[in-house]
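Work Package 4 report. The design task specified in the project plan requires that, given a folded chain encoded as C-alpha cells, an amino acid be chosen for each position. We show below one input record used in the internal validation round.
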C-alpha cells in the first residue's frame, strides 16, 4: 500500500531512445521516464522498507562473522494475505534499509557514509552552510523547505532522523567514508541527536 507503487520514480537499467521506451512501455507495461537529457529509462517504485525479513539469520551471523546486509537496499518483497512473500519490481532505498536494519539490531549509532563530509543547506550557493549538530525536527523543517534532493541527501536525512526517533539515546551521523573515524570521535560530520 506504499504510495511509491502508484508513482514509480527510481530509474533502473540502461538508457533507451524515446521510440524504444515507448515500445517497452506498450510491450512490457514498463513505466518509462526521460532521465536528465541522457535518454529514457525504466522507473520502478522505491517503497519504504517496513522490516528486514531475515533478521533472525542476520542476528546469528552478526555475532559470529563480519556481516554485509541490505546491499543496494535489499531484495524487495511484499507479504501476501496468506503470509507468503512475493518479489516485486522495486528498489528499496539503501539508507532507509540501513536505518531499519540498525533499529532491528538495536544499534546505538547509525552512520551513513556518502560523498560529502557533512549535510549542507543552500548547496552550491554563497550561503552554503554545513550542519554539524541537528535534531530530527530541524531536519524535518529543512526538508519541508526543500534543502535536500529526493534521490540524494533526502533519504539520508530521513533515515538519520527516523533512527534517532526510534528509541531514546540513539544518535546518527552522516559523513564521508574517508572521515568516518573522525566522525565517530565527533570531529566532523552531521550528528543527529534528540533535542
Amino acid at each position: 500500500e506504499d504510495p511509491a507503487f502508484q508513482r514509480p520514480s527510481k530509474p533502473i537499467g540502461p538508457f533507451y531512445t524515446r521510440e524504444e521506451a515507448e515500445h517497452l512501455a506498450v510491450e512490457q507495461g514498463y513505466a518509462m521516464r526521460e532521465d536528465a537529457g541522457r535518454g529514457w529509462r525504466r522507473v520502478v517504485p522505491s517503497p519504504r522498507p517496513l522490516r528486514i525479513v531475515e533478521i533472525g539469520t542476520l542476528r546469528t551471523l552478526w555475532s559470529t562473522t563480519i556481516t554485509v546486509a541490505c546491499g543496494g537496499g535489499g531484495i524487495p518483497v511484499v507479504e501476501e494475505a496468506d503470509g507468503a512473500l512475493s518479489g516485486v519490481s522495486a528498489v528499496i532505498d539503501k539508507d532507509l534499509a540501513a536505518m531499519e536494519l540498525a533499529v532491528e539490531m538495536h544499534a546505538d549509532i547509525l552512520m551513513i557514509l556518502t560523498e560529502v563530509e557533512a549535510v549542507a543547506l543552500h548547496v552550491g550557493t554563497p550561503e552554503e552552510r554545513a550542519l554539524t549538530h541537528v535534531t530530527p525536527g530541524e531536519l524535518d523543517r529543512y526538508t519541508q523547505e526543500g534543502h535536500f534532493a529526493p534521490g540524494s541527501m533526502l533519504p539520508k536525512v530521513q533515515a538519520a532522523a527516523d533512527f534517532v526517533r526510534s528509541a531514546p539515546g540513539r544518535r546518527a551521523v552522516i559523513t564521508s567514508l574517508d572521515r568516518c573515524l573522525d566522525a565517530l570521535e565527533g570531529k566532523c560530520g552531521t550528528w543527529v541527536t534528540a533535542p
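The helical segments are 18-28, 55-62, 94-104, 136-144, 154-166, 180-184. Validation will be extended to a larger panel in the next phase.
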